[in-house]
Request: fold
Amino acid sequence: MFGLLKKKKQLASSAIDYNNLPEHIGIIMDGNGRWAKKRGLPRSAGHSMGARVLEQITRAAGNIGIKYLTVYAFSTENWSRPDDEVKALMKLIGEYLDDYRRIIGDEDMRVRFIGSKNGLTDDIIRKMHVVEEATKDNKSITLNIALNYGGRDEIVNAVRSVAQKVSDGELNVSDISEKLLSEHMYTHYMPDPDFIIRPSGEQRLSNFLLWQSAYSEFWYSNINWPDFTRADLERAIVDYQSRNRRFGGV
Ligand code: IPE
Ligand code: IPE
Ligand code: MG
Reply:
């Protein structure tokens, strides 16, 4: 009897509350290399599997009712990896972009990119533009792909464009506020992330959404990204829903 009651409670507590969803989830898709190494495969095989998992998790997030999903695909620091790996990653990203119609399928999904264009090939930049244009009227979920993204780089860019406007006389120094800086970030069109998920066991931001994560809730797990499933996403969301977000209040 008590066993049954306990079981019921566990089932009930593992269900997502659809009235309390995080509006914006960020995911640091980490652990591809370790996933591959464990299986005696090249790191690029981990990246390929990671791209497939991205498709599944994007669909799952849309299905659950998440409005914004931002995924960290390539950081401004990832250029420091061996040439072979950077090449393999860029090839994979190009293939992912070519395949966007199949990936999006019937989903009402808008795809946007955040990050710097510096260092990306014209071919990748053109493909990014095609995908953004083709999906611009879709509304249910926005998938933000952080590609060649760095939080510090983003802040420097925002400060530069604000400084330029001050120098041109378009703005006064006294106009500079948190809101104004937010409006100059790559993420100006979305709310701050409520929840940031990082698989692979690392417990750091690695330059992801530094400005925007001031009050984000975090969730870490030892699962490597290529092993991440919809069930893991749901578990993470249920955990998020048990948090008490105070934003400095009481
Ligand atoms: C994340 O997986 C993918 C990118 C950074 C592009 P990693 O390649 O960082 O995998 P690990 O952390 O070495 O296992
Ligand atoms: C963060 O992972 C970047 C992406 C997932 C794209 P890294 O693997 O680059 O981060 P560190 O080096 O472990 O901090
Ligand atoms: Mg890593």
Q: What stands out?
A: Residues 29-34, 74, 78, 89, 200 surround IPE (ligand 1) (CB under 6 Å). The chain has a mean pLDDT of 95. The longest strand covers residues 141-149.
